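Quarterly update, task 2.4: aspartic acid-bound model.
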Amino acid sequence: MALIVQKYGGTSVGSVERIQAVAQRVKRTRAQGHDVVVVVSAMSGETDRLIGLARAVQPQPVPRELDVLIATGEQVTIALLAMALEAAGCPARSYTGSQVQIHTDSAHNKARIRDIDGARVGGDLEAGRVVVVAGFQGIDRAGNITTLGRGGSDTSAVAMAAALKADECQIYTDVDGVYTTDPRIEPRARKLDRITFEEMLEMASLGSKVLQIRAVEFAGKYRVPLRVLSSFREGEGTLISFEEDNVEDAKIAGIAFAKDEAKLTVLGVPDQPGIAHKILGPISEANIEVDMIVQNVGADSTTTDFTFTVHRNDYDTALQVLRETAEQLSAREVAGDETIVKLSLVGVGMRSHAGIASQMFEALAREGINIRMISTSEIKISVVIDEKYLELGVRALHEAFGLAEKTIL
Ligand code: ADP
Ligand code: ASP
Ligand code: MG
């Protein structure tokens, strides 16, 4: 007998029928003799609908009140799923984040989980009940409702699994595993049986929304066995593996992309020590996270150009802050572009294979795609390109690296 945490995402609980189908799946797992804790998302579209309501009332909603509102989506689902389980003859109890004491910090809309008190859940499991927990939400020290950022139910599930020392955390979604890239963009994308934890971490942080990055971080920190599967079809899904040896010996695991990037450049700033700090200090003070950074050597030796990327939501604020800085520094000009995307190749095999970057650049050049920025790390290469080339770029790289075929080197 094992303890399994199952998480069902928005599409998987998107209608009464889907919730009933989830209840049947949970019941089957129970019938195999396992204890089950289920974490659910809001029904698909519900979180967006609630955010829309908030914005209609207040264009920049007060973060605390936004959390009170958007946490309601998951409360609807836990109650309906518990009812569906009871109706199917499977005893169940539902709990909100505050009831199971999912403690977070106070960063509304992007809170981080601090700890979970598993005691309450334990009692129900001993009594033979399925426990249904609302994903995406928690409470801070003062008892305020918090939410964990979009896609946060993944993190709730992994954190529950870590707190309860579950044998496996299963993430049920609308695709049957982790693919070489988003199958909605490249229909030839191939499902991976396994992906290393490190690769999954990179894929998630570079934009693959199949798992929230914090969920992967949690799984790594607490060594939670994690699997992504379909709630619509049977199958083994994809195992996030902590051992590199057993993983397909491919150079590249997959391609990730982030559509919500924006680029800012300040041209003709004096080329002096401390300039990066002077430019980026005010950006970080405005609570804006910077992603890629490039400083060019200017045409003359006295000035330079400085470019960085931010999340598109932060673009307007970043531009305003940068204009003020540019004036103080007597820079020549400030330019911005919010029609860019970041495309990344990820694979632990890069460590031992040279020439991946040039192969990548060649594939993009063949399609006439201009690379605007490049950044690399040990197991990833990212490029910034124009938004209009996103699909073409993904497909070109998928083809160039033969990702549709299983590669054994
Ligand atoms: P859920 O509501 O179940 O949490 P999400 O929409 O958050 O589901 O995540 C699943 C989606 O992630 C898929 O429908 C797919 O479009 C997208 N996705 C992006 N990259 C990948 C990838 N590499 N493999 C699988 N799915 C991916
Ligand atoms: N309902 C939340 C969202 O749409 C959390 C989740 O689905 O993981 O982002
Ligand atoms: Mg999700």
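Highlight for this quarter: The chain has a mean pLDDT of 94.
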